[in-house]
Amino acid sequence: MPPRPAASGGRGSPARGHMLQQFDERNRDLIVNINGDLVHRDKAGISPFDSLVQGGDGVWEGLRLYDGKIFRLEEHLRRLHDSARIIAIEDIPSRDAIVEEIRRTLEANNMTDGVHIRLTLSRGTKITSGMDPRLNQAGPTLIVLAEFKAPVYGKTGLRLATSSVRRFPPDCLDPKIHSNNLLQSILAKIEANASGADSALLLDREGFIAECNGTHVFLVRDGAVLTSTTDACPEGITRETVLGLCRANGIPYHVGRYSLAEAYRADEMFCTGTMGELAAVTTLDGRTIGSGSVGPMTQRLTELFMAEVQASGVRVVEG
Q: What's the pTM?
């Protein structure tokens, strides 16, 4: 099925500016994996009784494949398992079972490099519509979606706009649940699109920086790397990798609570995530961050990150 033209930003559409993700022709005939069944993307589907359809009731991970190896695979699978336990999904597939389905999917698509994998675990299908998890009696649904996809953010600098949407604290919906309920992020992205920004910056209920709609946020000030706590954002795996690189290389860093004013006056700002790796932020709410170009600390950490990617990872297919 060919891609639809991008929205023009007319009536009824919030789309404006450049869309970072585009259709890749190599993905036209993707084979996707739903509970072990390998199916063409146009034929794939889940039941309308599935918990994902009924209530966004599931958990997910984003993985990246480099030369046949998945970066930080064990950490991603642990977070998936932890999130599934927190929301009381029963019969969670084993680590080895999930890895085998990832391998089968990659091999079915002849994929070895430059691939992003969306791994989803739903509570499964219900015997009848409703919110009660006791209606789920068939076990969970595991979906493996692998696409050829380069990092979605450019390396020359992102434009962010602060959203009116606030990130939930643990007493509302704990961000340690890596949930398929992404409506907060989608609403924030709609605002960013309407303002012509590349991504949205979200604050917590008290006005401190939480994260972007799909990435974690770092500031650099006087040679130190700063990032928010995980009180109102997920426990990011790329985020933790960057903090580990700071520790290993003697780079000062602090985890705390940072306001918008501290972002506006930062020497550098960058985002991290599996989908986009490390990406500099050069504009926030119309203000130029630092020199307005990719800063030296962002460049250094990007180089250290890519070296870590090359040196580590769990082999799943032959590269």
A: 0.93
